[in-house]
C-alpha cells in the first residue's frame, strides 16, 4: 500500500536551513556545578578549581648541589716566618733532634743563643725570614735557645761548646753532626746582621 505523497510545501519547510531543528543535543555530563559562594563558608569562593596535570617522572626537580670548597692545603714552609727566643721551649730536646737529623743528612747544626731583650738578637731575627738568608739556612739545622732568663738548663747547653763566663749576645755556634765546634762567634766575632752579611757567614760555615 502506497502512502500519501507528502505536501511539497512541508518538504521545503523542513529542508530549509532556517527551519531546521536546533534544539539541545545529547552531551556528556559535565563536572558538578560549584556555586559562586559556599553557603556554609561565605568567605570561601566556590569557583571551580583549575585542573593541574600531574608532574611527569622526567620533570623531577634535582636539587642543586652545594658549592664545594677546596680541601687542598698549602705546603708547609721550610722554615718559620718569624723567629724568637722562647723560654718555654724544651731546648735540650730540640738540640737532640737537630743532631739526629744532621747525622742523617750530614748538615751542620747552627745553635743561636740569645734573648728577646737583646737588640742585636732582635736585629738577627728580623733578617732570618728573608729569602736570601732562608736559601742559605737550608744547609743547617738551626735551633734558637733562650739564655736571657734564669733557665739554667739552656745555659748548660751553651757551656757544652764554650766554657767562657761572658758572652756578647747573640752567640752563634756551628757544630758538625759529630758534635765538633766548627765556628763560634764568641771567639770569631759577630757577622754583619744584614741579609747579605749573614748569608755570607752561613755560606762560609756550611758543611
Q: Could you tell me the mean pLDDT?
A: 75
Radius of gyration: 50 Å
Helix content: 25-40%
Count of DSSP helices? 7
Assembly type of the chains comes to: single chain
Fraction in beta strands: 5-15%
Structural class: alpha+beta
Distance between the termini: 142 Å
Write down how many β-strands occur, each being a DSSP E stretch of 2 or more residues: 4
CATH architecture of the domain at 91-205: 3-Layer(aba) Sandwich
Q: In the CATH scheme, what's the topology name of the domain at 91-205?
A: Glutaredoxin
Regarding CATH, which class of the domain at 91-205?
Alpha Beta
Largest sheet: 4 strands, mixed
Q: What spatial form do the alpha-carbon principal axes imply?
A: globular
Strand order of the largest sheet: 2-1-3-4
Low-confidence stretches: 26-38, 43-47, 52-79
CATH superfamily of the domain at 91-205: Glutaredoxin
Order of helices and strands: HHEHHEHEEHH
